[in-house]
Batch of 2 targets.
Target 1
Amino acid sequence: MTDSTLTTPHTPTDLPDGIRHYIDGTLVDSVDGATFDVLDPVTGRVYLQAAAGKKADIDAAVAAARRAFTEGPWPRMLPRERSRVLHRVADLVESRDARLAELESFDSGLPITQALGQARRAAENFRFFADLIVAQADDTYKVPGRQINYVNRKPIGVAGLITPWNTPFMLESWKLAPALATGNTVVLKPAEFTPLSASLWAGIFEEAGMPPGVFNLVNGLGEDAGDALVKHPDVPLISFTGESSTGQLIFANAAPHLKGLSMELGGKSPAIVFADADLDAAIDATIFGVFSLNGERCTAGSRILVERSVYDEFVERYAAQAQRVRVGYPHDPATEVGALVHPEHFDKVMSYVELGKNEGRLVAGGGRPAGFETGTFVAPTVFADVAPTARIFQEEIFGPVVCITPFDTDAEALTLANDTRYGLAAYVWTNDLKRAHNFSQAVEAGMVWLNSNNVRDLRTPFGGVKASGLGHEGGYRSIDFYTHQQAVHITL
Ligand code: NAD
């Protein structure tokens, strides 16, 4: 028997009437009263208005964060005291994971089970940086008879955090946790497509005992609120995750102020499957790698390169498995691919699907899935025989669309893998140990997974090369980004 609530759109109960900014411990509207529409991707219905922040709202938020930094207790608290607050944040996020997942899934179209995983990861990010900050050790050097030198690590000030709409709550936590753990104060500008889950942070921080002004949130469009945050002279740091083209603009806008920048940008990551690989595992992992999170994942393995001797078998089996991926309503626990985040993004992904029909051989998907005539649903789509010059091979689609290309030699595989402007992740499938390491070390990617899926230890560096990013986050690298390391020298 089918549960009919799983085959019709779902609206969570107790949605807020609207979304406001959170400045200096208070929920406020925009100074000019402006709002923007927020819609749910399944029905396309505008379900609430969010405050549309502009320069005046950013000015107020930065002033509050600056006051909290210069006068408030947060930067001066012992790491252990800040750590306790962050652990309470983690506890609260964990205790609300089901509600968070429900709201995130509704607002972004992510499958509910995957949204739940992301909520738990957000809690883990807070726990991780809460632990790391108390374990922080800094260098001391002694030149015998002459000098002692030590590092005095200090928070920098007001950190501007600008985040995208894919896994929004989790990606916000990835910046909030280290920025706050190190004693900075923050202004968060979440993505305008998905402001719902971000609106929960205010209550969580208040309950956890965060002093007012330490965490501030301004909603709004990138070109208004985001732009004003980047250009604000009292914001010395910008941590940005989003498209490479937006990153370039932010880089230019931050230049006059010589701001510290951390940029996590786009990707077009290759998965390279050699003939000696465990094909069952490679197929399962590369299906997950591009279709989980609706394909709206920066590290999606969206180009699969397959050694020619197993190419035909791989394509046939891959296409069959892609057709079995279950598309459904985001709130259905059986759903593997939900609804894309927004009609605008749906149109973009669909334009690539149409383009792909001329650039490759369509072997699965290619449009809306059966039974979903409305909403932003896209069937898992696979193009084979895609040439490296094709736009679908070169450009980030950010949806459930993958291209497969054959290769003959290791050298050709490496050339193909490196043949895009991006360099975020790579996935290598082979049982030859030497080849695995040689290939991984040569591939132009910030992160490589060998015979494995996209699972990360939070201590490892996260970041891309080429157009995929600037700098690294993760573990102590995040602590370094959010702190000054002052060198103090004493002559003996
Ligand atoms: P986007 O660049 O359109 O927007 C990201 C954020 O930047 C939003 O909050 C937006 O409002 C803001 N913004 C836009 N213009 C701005 C401006 N001129 N000044 C300041 N802020 C501005 O990206 P998106 O479409 O929200 O996200 C998808 C992109 O993010 C993809 O390219 C994806 O690969 C990338 N991404 C990268 C990572 C990573 O870690 N490398 C992780 C997730 C997503």
Target 2
Amino acid sequence: MSNEELQKLKERYVAAGAASPNQQFADHARNAELWDANGKRMIDFAGGIGVLNIGHRHPKVVEAVKAQLDKLMHTCQTVMPYEGYVRVAEKLSQVVPVRGHAKVMLANSGAEALENALKIARAATGKTNVICFDGGYHGRTFMTMAMNGKVAPYATDFGPMPGTVFRAPYPVPYHGVSEDEALRGLKMVLKTDANPKDTAAVVIEPVLGEGGFYQASASFLKKIREICDEHGMLMIADEVQSGFGRTGKMFAIEHSGVEPDIMTMAKSMADGMPISAIVGTDKVMDASGPNSLGGTYTGSPTACAAALAVMEVFEEEDILGQSQALGEKLAKHFAQWQEKFEHVDNVRNLGPMAAIELVTDKQSREPRADLAAKVTAYAKEHGLILLSCGLYGNTIRFLMPVTIEDDVLEEGMQIVEDALASL
Ligand code: PMP
């Protein structure tokens, strides 16, 4: 079916809140290229929002999923467990930087990972409140909607949110929120609203995802760790977007040396198969009773087969080395753009978790979401999928596969440069 025919079906049958505004439909893809239903080629700098760090349909993952389909598709692991689930748990336990010996629970999506991390944190501490950050994004379930730094569009139409969520400032020095100010804000929230005696956890993205790829420094993350320890709160690192090689290391928190109690991960964990994980210190992870965690599909055999294949690809193809190299290439382009274009500023990257900001000019730093929208629209017209994001909607983020071929990368970067020149 063509884009136009599919668009008609979408308008008639897909719920308004779930319908993509994009009228191009994806048909097939390979590594960093994708073709729409009308056969138009697009370069993919969005990677399904950070899901495809090793590229669309990595051959080893496709092969592993096909082999699994021939053996076993489902039992519900609480009815009868299977090898994939426990092997994914073993592998993750060996690579996460959490404190002490790690145990694992698998789920289906990022939001579910956060929901379960909070359940576990409540069980382990006997406390209920949670502190999150401005600009944070954690999902679209009730708890995670309440945790998001932004209300609109996620929580606008759904009535009251759970009242156990409190929010502190995330440090964004470029826009006037220093680390000291963010810490003062956190301490104030603890003192006035959340109360450490009632607060189970602080949930932080080491690099904000949807909030704009702003990085928390090692010193800020260390202070969060100290505050959590002081008050018997758990530190939860949400690595749903920053994990699995996006920042040049397996997980973004590793850049700081800080060990959280719990980590949540999803996205690039299985190259597009729906799976997520909650990984934490064994004592914490074992805090809730039998059959209190999980669900019918959590950690399904096919998703686990994909996750295991992804971890093999990381080992066999030096994905972290490729990630670091891509980060350096992006930084070089960004430095040139910042020099050349008045509207480009605050370029930043942790490996290839990279972004530029569009502002009126470098003196005013006034965020310009309208310019970011022009850049992404220009890119789309010229065959490039590019995403904006951020507290101010003026950040362009780069989430292409780290396995992208050099010529495809340069072709895509030239389209971005032409878009910036057209402003
Ligand atoms: N946490 C972070 C940091 C995310 O970036 C996202 C998704 N963008 C989520 C949680 C929610 O993940 P999902 O969409 O799979 O529910």
